[in-house]
């Protein structure tokens, strides 16, 4: 959704050449970033005339996968104050107090289906005369989403699903090998996560599963993401 798209002068909305990057606050495990340091370097050093970006202000974070120093190395500014930024980027929806008047925001807002828990965020954006570019609604001329879950999100989701399945079965009174899996963010690499899933598979192949939950059938659908 884009609630408004207007030019209001220096320091507001789009066009002032200052980008902001939010510190993620919705999920304790969120380490992703909307722009990596290399992305920021390309935007900053290609010149404002080419990219439209003169400055990038990054809110400090001790859990972000790319450390603050890496952003500083490519010319970004580290500051909690994003008030000079015309466009502010994030991954997930920010806290309500992070929404500034007359600014443009881009993130996954989880509001376009009127998700009840996030509607106060939409109300705040409208009240502050801000603009929201929701990643879920950015599409090409054919209506196909341009920003969607990729293969790594799919792999993380698979691990978290299997871990959750183990917790669900435990609540029903069944111990399964799925209980040995950690959440996806706990693994230091994709190889380590794969090894953990393979270990679960080998245990199931050797010991089987409780008869009360068999047969257990998985069906994978979708476009491959």
Automatic annotation (TrEMBL):
Pfam families: AlaDh_PNT_N. Residues 20-156 form the Alanine dehydrogenase/pyridine nucleotide transhydrogenase N-terminal domain. One of its GO terms (cellular component) is cytoplasm. GO terms for molecular function: saccharopine dehydrogenase activity. One of its GO terms (biological process) is lysine biosynthetic process via aminoadipic acid. InterPro entries: AASS, AlaDH/PNT_N. Keywords: Oxidoreductase. This is Alanine dehydrogenase/pyridine nucleotide transhydrogenase N-terminal domain-containing protein. It comes from Escallonia rubra.
């Amino acid at each position: 959704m884009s609630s408004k798209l207007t030019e209001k002068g220096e320091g507001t909305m789009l066009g002032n050449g200052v980008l902001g990057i939010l510190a993620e606050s919705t999920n304790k495990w969120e380490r992703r970033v909307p722009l990596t340091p290399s992305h920021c370097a390309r935007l900053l050093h290609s010149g404002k005339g080419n990219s439209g970006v003169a400055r990038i202000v990054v809110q400090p974070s001790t859990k972000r996968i790319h450390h603050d120093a890496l952003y500083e190395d490519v010319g970004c500014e580290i500051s909690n104050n994003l008030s000079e930024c015309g466009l502010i980027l994030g991954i997930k929806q920010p806290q309500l107090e992070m929404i500034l008047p007359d600014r443009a925001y881009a993130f996954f807002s989880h509001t376009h289906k009127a998700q009840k828990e996030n509607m106060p965020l939409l109300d705040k954006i409208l009240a502050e005369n801000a603009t929201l570019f929701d990643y879920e609604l950015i599409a090409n001329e054919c209506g196909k989403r341009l920003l969607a879950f990729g293969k790594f999100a799919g792999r993380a989701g698979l691990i978290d699903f299997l871990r959750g399945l183990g917790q669900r079965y435990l609540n029903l009174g069944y111990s399964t090998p799925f209980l040995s899996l950690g959440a996806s963010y706990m693994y230091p690499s994709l190889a380590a996560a794969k090894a953990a899933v393979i270990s679960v598979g080998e245990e199931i192949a050797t010991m089987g599963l409780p008869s009360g939950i068999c047969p257990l059938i998985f069906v994978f659908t979708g476009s491959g993401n």
